[in-house]
Design goal:
By secondary structure, the chain is an alpha+beta fold. The protein has a single domain, classed as Arylsulfatase, C-terminal domain, CATH 3.30.1120. The protein is built from 1 helix and 6 strands.
Length: 91
C-alpha cells in the first residue's frame, strides 16, 4: 500500500536559511510546521516539527527534540521529494 502525500499549504519565507513553511498530509495525518531549510551554497532539506528540549534539574541538556519522525525510509524519501518539488515549482 502506498502512503498518500499531499502538500496542503506552502508559504515562502526566505528568512536566511529558512526558505518555506509547509503543511502536508501524510496518509491520514496532517503535519503542520514542516520547514524547508537551505544553507548558502547547500542543498535544501526538510526539517520536521520540533520543540525545545527540556533541561535536566542540573541545568544540562538543551537543543530540540522531535515531535514527528517518519521512520520508513521510503516514505521519508517520497515526502522530501514531493515537498521540495512543490517548493521549486511554487511562484
Amino acid at each position: 500500500m502506498t502512503t498518500t502525500i499531499e502538500v496542503l499549504e506552502l508559504r515562502r519565507l526566505d528568512r536566511g536559511s529558512l526558505k518555506a513553511a509547509v503543511k502536508v498530509r501524510l496518509g491520514p495525518v496532517v503535519i503542520d510546521g514542516v520547514r524547508i531549510v537551505q544553507q548558502e551554497g547547500g542543498a535544501p532539506w526538510l526539517a520536521l516539527p520540533q520543540a525545545p528540549a527540556r533541561r535536566k534539574r542540573d541545568g544540562s541538556g538543551s537543543g530540540w527534540s522531535r515531535i514527528v519522525e517518519v521512520i520508513d525510509p521510503a516514505v521519508s524519501d517520497r515526502l522530501r521529494t514531493e515537498v521540495l518539488r512543490a517548493w521549486e515549482s511554487a511562484p
